Predict the 3D structure of the following.
Amino acid sequence: MLNLGVLISGTGSNLKAVLDAIAEKRLDARVNVVVSNVATAPGLEHARAHGVPTLIIDHKAFPNRAAFDGALVESLRAHEVDWLVLAGFMRVITPVLLDAFPLRIVNIHPSLLPAFPGMHAQKQAFDYGVRVAGCTVHLVDAGTDTGPILAQAAVPVLDTDDEPALRARILAEEHTLLPRVLQWIAEGRVSVTRAGGGDGAAGAGGASGAEGGGRARVTVARGEA
Ligand code: GRF
């Protein structure tokens, strides 16, 4: 069973997807705490509805990003979080958080990375005129949306699409993909190999390989799921 912490800033529909998957026993995990940096984030209601503890840690109360991340780490540790999920968390994270959860931070991004990292990815893709958009679940590293890719889902762009319609179809795929990948992790089916040596089983039992050079490669033992 994964002990998750989820960081949000807004709507929290991906958080809801994770909580629903747990409730429906599609995901062998527990959300120990949901932390929002925005007091009014609607996503907090999803946590409350599932009886999950919530915390508001306002980044504006800290002198810099590292101090904010230090407070996050303290709270996540207090809630015995092993794996962290960024579900619409709109803050750049620092090595303080990365080093506390090495290769144990999962992000969902609404594009087929490495295309369209950063903000407004769906608009970037739509404006570019791609014919296939999608979403990516990846491990977080020090870059912006650059970490090892765990899984992606493609979403065709229809001639009739406008940007909101495309965004909605991508989001629906996110809601399927994120809990599915977390379940792979829960089953110990995800392993990370860092180029130049060092295997790290990124499953529930342990992750390693955060140190050292080279781009990490992720292998997923897919089984029948
Ligand atoms: C999603 O599109 C996610 O990919 C991105 O931020 C959005 C969050 O949506 N990182 P929600 O708060 O989960 O509804």
User: Anything to note?
Assistant: The first helix runs from residue 13 to 23. The chain has six helices and ten strands.
